[in-house]
Write a structure and sequence with these properties.
six-stranded antiparallel sheet, 32 strands, alpha+beta, Pdz3 Domain, five-stranded antiparallel sheet, single chain
């Protein structure tokens, strides 16, 4: 006679669970701050999921539909709770701790507490997989076809309008909750990015319209309750060549309404399809330097700076805004500046080195990044591609055989392919031409012992295979300022290219000898509007002169000084607080509409190719951002962020995609039009296709999260 096989390993599993519990409690009590933040993040996301599912639940219940399960999280079940005739039945990890002869699936760890009264058919669950939730109704299946039943309480036996209301309720509740979250944040007061222009890309639509650093945007169209995100969204939502009216207050106090059109700016982040060319304002307070290998943190502190310092003066001259700081540094042609910072109740001076970079242009990929009165300095390598964390680990244990033959920081580029002393444009042309091929780059590598000329092999690759303009070798460049050599001369709108040979050294301006490009720029600015003789010498000993009418415009030098170390200035934020509950409701509604629109813009950008899928963030990435907000920002901003998530979930769930709420409604609309339900076989096929696509999408965005966290 066959014996019934008893469950084995229950005690072992119990011991494992006990050990896990003890370890978890130890970690919690030794890291209370971290786990406290994790709990807050979990409560926030749990609230968003619960509100969505509660929408389905309450409408289904009032419609007389039998609800079998209400779950936060997906199976396996961590905790189940149901009201029975004997009391509240509680079961814990029933799949992990099974019980013999257990047709109800209670599991070995189950209890009944309290007294029985009015039993419920609904079990309330918490699942081990925390990325979502569901409401299981009789006669309703998200995947496959539901079992046929004549029960009038079945979902499928209800009128189409009722079923649509049940399915749409989750989205509606998310939208309503978004308004409530925003309203609470605005009633208390929340800090948001101020609508102040930090900088403007030259030649961008904003620059051409006359918007300048320091301008305050008072209104976007008819919207007056705005922060900086409204400006970015207005650009993304605008039609091609549509001028968006921006009401601007300039630094002199004058106000005007300016029409600005949006454009796709080169090198803009992949999640920004189009922009006005306006950069967000920054404060004068230093934030945290974030770098995995801590090199940037060490460099930051080496000059006597600390996170939390507030810059109040440059070389003794007071500064009150970040654009005053930027301008003071850009105009300084020395190799360092003295910053005065406030640190608590005292002031500290810090000497910070400067380096000269190319001035911003609207299209850095197609122009010579810098020229001083038509003369283009040589270029050197400013930085190399950062290794991701996994790449660093591989290099550490396996070595990097290409390292000896690779480019290095401060290498001076003196040739690329068959071009000697290339300009940036010429370098870009050769990189693009050699997409997927070997490209020889000749460099001058300076060291304490000697200067040597090397030929380095690089392998250009297009970041986007569809666009050869994205072909790169992964380096950032800056002009060689310490030596007065030129790569070439180029025509400018004001001055025709000087006749000076490639690779020549500038030796004199008039009667004055020069040692570097700082000397050259100083002398040229001193003699603006005058004619000067520029002396030069070549590598073979030849000398010569070229006449230059120095432009009167002081901005003729397309290069500017910047800080050598990273200066992580915090964003400029202002407190947004409603005057009364009615205003808070209006502000909450406005923000909900704004973020719903922003989500649709993102989706549209993905479908038409304006936004790269690599810009998408999955659950892990969102949780990481949430943790950073909880640990670094005021809690009111986390409430605001949860409102943003609620609005986004409302949009995503309403998409007409199989197994999403919008897809279910679409199936019911088809049923209404054709007069009968879609066949069970067809429903099953559509549902499984949708499930596969969603799982694929989930895995893709999770991979994005992994690469962003562990490989960068």
């Amino acid at each position: 006679m066959a014996q019934t096989k008893k469950p084995v390993g229950i005690y072992t599993r119990g011991i494992i669970l006990l050990i896990i519990t003890i370890v978890a409690l130890f970690l919690i009590f030794t890291n209370l701050d971290i786990f406290g933040n994790i709990i807050v993040v979990g409560l926030g996301f749990g609230a968003v999921i619960m509100i969505h599912e509660f929408g389905h639940f309450i409408v289904a219940r009032t419609s007389g539909i039998k609800i079998e399960q209400f779950a936060i999280g997906f199976p396996p079940v961590l905790l189940g709770l149901r009201k029975t005739a004997d009391g509240w039945k509680i079961r814990v990890l029933p799949k992990f701790f099974p019980k013999e002869n257990d047709p109800t699936g209670e599991g070995a760890i189950s209890y009944t507490i309290g007294s029985g009264k009015d039993p419920s058919e609904t079990e309330y669950r918490i699942g081990l997989i925390p990325f979502g939730g569901y409401v299981k109704m009789l006669g309703q299946e998200d995947v496959g076809t539901a079992e046929a039943t004549v029960d009038p309480r079945s979902f499928v036996n209800k009128p189409i309008l009722t079923r649509c209301a049940v399915v749409a309720a989750g989205v509606v509740f998310n939208a309503i909750s978004a308004v409530l979250f925003f309203m609470i944040a605005f009633m208390i007061g929340v800090k948001l990015p101020a609508p102040i222009v930090g900088d403007v890309f030259p030649d961008s639509p904003a620059a051409k319209a006359g918007i300048k650093p320091g301008d305050r945007i008072l209104a976007v169209g008819r919207d007056t309750d705005i922060d900086f995100s409204n400006i970015a969204l207005a650009a993304a939502l605008s039609d091609v060549n549509e001028k968006v009216p921006l009401k601007v207050r300039h630094l002199d106090g004058s106000e005007e309404t300016i029409g600005v059109w949006a454009a796709k700016l080169p090198n803009s982040p992949p999640q920004i399809p189009r922009s006005f060319g306006i950069m967000q304002g920054q404060s004068l307070t230093l934030g945290k330097v974030k770098d995995s290998d801590s090199n940037e943190i060490k460099e930051f502190k080496k000059y006597g700076l600390e996170s939390g310092d507030t810059i109040v003066a440059v070389n003794g001259k007071p500064v009150q805004t970040s654009y005053q700081l930027t301008q003071a540094v850009a105009d300084d042609l020395s190799d360092s500046v003295v910053l005065t910072v406030e640190r608590g109740d005292k002031r500290v001076d810090a000497k910070v080195p400067l380096e000269m970079h190319f001035a911003l242009t609207m299209d850095n990929s197609q122009k010579n990044l810098a020229n001083i009165a038509t003369m283009v300095p040589l270029m050197k390598v400013a930085s190399l591609p950062k290794q991701g964390k996994i790449e660093k680990l591989v290099s550490k244990f396996l070595g990097s055989p290409e390292k000896a033959a690779s480019l290095k920081v401060d290498d001076i580029i003196i040739g690329v392919a068959d071009v000697n002393y290339p300009t940036f444009t010429e370098l870009r042309q050769q990189v693009k031409k050699h997409n997927g091929k070997e490209l020889a780059v000749r460099v001058l590598r300076k060291s304490a012992a000697t200067d040597e000329i090397l030929t380095v092999k690089t392998y250009p690759k297009a970041a986007d295979p569809r666009d050869p303009n994205t072909t790169v070798i992964g380096i950032e460049l800056m002009p060689v300022i310490d030596y007065p050599y030129i790569a070439a001369t180029v025509d400018t709108p004001d001055v025709k290219a000087l006749e000076i040979p490639r690779g020549a050294a500038i030796t004199t301006l008039g009667q004055t000898q020069v040692q570097n490009w700082r000397d050259i720029i100083k002398d040229l600015k001193t003699n603006a509007g005058k004619e000067m003789q520029i002396g030069y010498s070549t590598a073979d000993g030849k000398t010569g002169q070229a006449a230059l009418m120095v432009p009167a415009d002081p901005n003729f030098a397309l290069a500017q000084s910047t800080f050598a170390p990273i200066m992580p200035l915090k964003d400029l934020r202002e407190v947004y607080k409603a005057q009364n509950p009615f205003v808070a409701v209006k502000m909450g509604c406005d923000k909900t509409v704004m973020f719903i629109a922003q989500t649709y813009v993102t989706l549209k950008g993905l479908f038409v190719g304006l936004i790269s899928p690599k810009a998408l963030m999955g659950p892990a990435g969102i949780l990481k951002v949430s943790y950073m907000i909880v640990s670094e920002r005021m809690w009111t901003f986390y409430i605001y962020f949860i409102g943003l998530i609620s609005a986004s979930i409302a949009v995503m769930n309403f998409l007409p995609f199989p197994i999403l709420d919008g897809g279910v409604i679409m199936m019911m609309i088809i049923e209404k039009i054709k007069g009968s339900p879609i066949s069970p076989k067809t429903q099953g096929i559509i549902s499984y296709i949708g499930l596969v696509l969603i799982i694929t999408f989930f895995l893709y965005v999770t991979w994005n999260d992994i690469t962003n966290v562990f490989m960068k």
